[in-house]
Amino acid sequence: MSQGRVAVVLGSDSDLDAMRGCFDTLDKLGIPREAHVISAHRTPDDAHEFAKGAREAGYSVIIAAAGGAAHLAGVLASMTTLPVIGVPLASSVLGGADALHSTVQMPPGVPVATVSVGSWGGTNAAVLAAEVLALSDGALSKRLDEYRDDMVAKVRKKAERLREKLGTPRGDSGGT
Ligand code: RP5
Question: Among 60, 108, 113, 162, which is most exposed with the fewest C-beta within 10 angstroms?
Fold first, then answer.
């Protein structure tokens, strides 16, 4: 288990499906995490209390995911100097472009490290949080290397399968 703890804040329990990969990846990397449902517009007092107390509560990184009222990550970031990673979700008719803009476009001084929209972003938020924690955790840094190695092995296996299927000789990608 890593030394640092991550708080994953969801704007609603309806965000959970999109954020499964985030929880799974944190678990896979052995990072203690806690889930919170806090809404920037429905429970602003809870957002305030949580962000103000997050450092003292022992968190090292906050991941905040929201689809509507997607200023959640920025609201939390405004009340803590812990790193905040924002995950814009596609929960409105605008397909997540609205959430992306609300999350990413922070004026100078209060950053939100914004990842891609939806479940890709959820997973990347977990990996980014791990990279932050790994700065001071050698064992976690090793697990991150293994995570990458695993990805490389999977892609190479896919490439091999495709070569077999298409009969492309090894070393000839078909490109110019
Ligand atoms: C935000 O608005 C949540 O982050 C969610 O993505 C969206 C809809 O929330 P619910 O109405 O499903 O609670 O608060």
Answer: 108
Which amino acids bring their CB within 6 angstroms of ligand 1? 11-12, 14-15, 39, 66-69, 89, 91
Distance 33 CA to ligand 1 centre (A): 21
- Residue 171 main-chain phi, psi, to 5 deg: 90, -10
Q: Which of 8, 9, 10, 12 to mutate to test the pocket of ligand 1 (most atoms within 8 A of CB)?
A: 12
Q: What is the pLDDT of residues 67-118, one digit of tens each?
A: 999 999 999 999 999 999 999 999 889 999 999 999 999 999 999 999 999 9
Distance 66 CA to ligand 1 centre (A): 7
Q: What ligand 1 atom has the least distance to the C-alpha of 91?
A: 6
Domain boundary assignment for the chain: 5-137
Helix (H/G/I), strand (E/B), else coil: 5: strand
Ligand 1 atom with the shortest distance to the CA of 66: 4
The number of CA neighbours under 13 Å toward the Cβ of 105 is: 7
* pTM greater than 0.90: yes
Q: Please, what CATH class does the domain formed by 5-137 belong to?
A: alpha beta
3-12 average pLDDT score: 94
